[in-house]
């Protein structure tokens, strides 16, 4: 056989995967969707953007770069061969009856053992709905009344620690303190026991470090999720790795759970076999685990022991950093916007005159009635939403129309940062902290507020919306008034925008302040 012919055949065979890739790109009915050239062939640019911790900013920049003339954002951009970032929270994708399951990116968030599933990364629509239905009551607004005392306990300790820092006059990392606060509140609500972070503002036993490592691992490995089961098994015994971090968190949660089981058993013995009544008889409030134990012992609700571990774990992993990030944003923006801070203090002073606030303590019900406070919180979570990647969902079999475009297959997702920075929705002052925008739109009524609410998604959307959102709102509504009434804050770098790093949770990295006691708080 002619050597040239033979070489041509070998070359063709070697190059055929690439040629096939080029063919599929050109023949794709979605080839007109804009995006970086490389993203047509590989997810690598997306992976690198996540790796750099700036995927939220990159995502916004792409929608701006490919915007059609006269528009601020391109409605759809490509982040990978089958990954499409959208700007509109389409009901088909995110509505309560959505048929779009979560994508394989979420695999990185679960243990490779299928028995050890959890709510957040659950990709099975039916199983997720069933589990969520069983437990929604313990996260509901009506359960919050029972959790308020736990928040008060931590608020008192937090205030004390900040008073000490005010006396010392040093610069403190406010995000770290808010993290300590949020972890301890979740510990109190879940097990009636703080983790102890607020004792000295330190990462007791390295739990935050382990969680950070796990966040980074899960966020990145999810992009190439097929590798996760192999990589996880290799890394899980290495203490400083992301998988090792997860193992460590699992063990900490398990230990806490065992302690509580032993306590409950003791109470049952002391109460002559009536554990269910013992907590209430002693007049103590019911924490999250008490409620879970009752459901387990009830036997009728399909609750199994694994559920207790799974939800305790979810509370700590999903409920601490997210609240800390959100609190950081609210406080940072209030400090940078003295007019808003002043207005908030005026509202709080007025509430005190009406007897709604006792010193610096504010009841949750009263706080929910304060329009300006609520607007300050909402605006803080708009400008710095705690999660910073598209909420990826898989186009169901047979394809579907999303944002006016038919997708035969692939994955679509909206990034909360993209939704919150769309000038067409929020106006030219999209980047300003302006709590008034919420009050004005509410008073105006009609389409404006409906559109704002539809695009406001710090807690996600539809059936997969955050189950713990009321708990975090309880914390924020109570601690923000306390902080701004007790302290003044000075930013270390007032002329510099706060920077953030995004490994799914978008964390501020340089929120350094000095706290000072306000004149009326010096006691
Ligand atoms: C300000 C604080 C919080 C923010 C910004 C936040 C944000 C979110 C977001 C965006 C999602 C949906 C993610 C997706 O669709 O992929 C979510 C889900 C979830 N969050 Fe939160 N969260 C917060 C607080 C909490 C708290 C306090 C808890 C628990 C006590 C919690 C537990 C969960 C769980 C278990 C899920 C999964 C729900 C499901 O798939 O059914 N979160 N959160």
UniProtKB/TrEMBL annotation:
Coiled coil, from the record: 334-361
Alphabetical list of PANTHER family matching this protein: CYTOCHROME P450, P450, PUTATIVE (EUROFUNG)-RELATED
Cofactor(s) it depends on: heme
Organism, scientific name: Rhizodiscina lignyota
PROSITE patterns, sorted: CYTOCHROME_P450
Any Pfam family hit: p450
Gene Ontology MF term list: heme binding; iron ion binding; monooxygenase activity; oxidoreductase activity, acting on paired donors, with incorporation or reduction of molecular oxygen
Keyword Disulfide bond: no
Binding-site residues, heme: 466
Gene3D superfamilies: Cytochrome P450
SUPFAM superfamilies for this protein: Cytochrome P450
Name of the protein this chain belongs to: Cytochrome P450
Alphabetized UniProt keyword annotations: Coiled coil, Heme, Iron, Metal-binding, Monooxygenase, Oxidoreductase
Family of the protein in this entry: Belongs to the cytochrome P450 family.
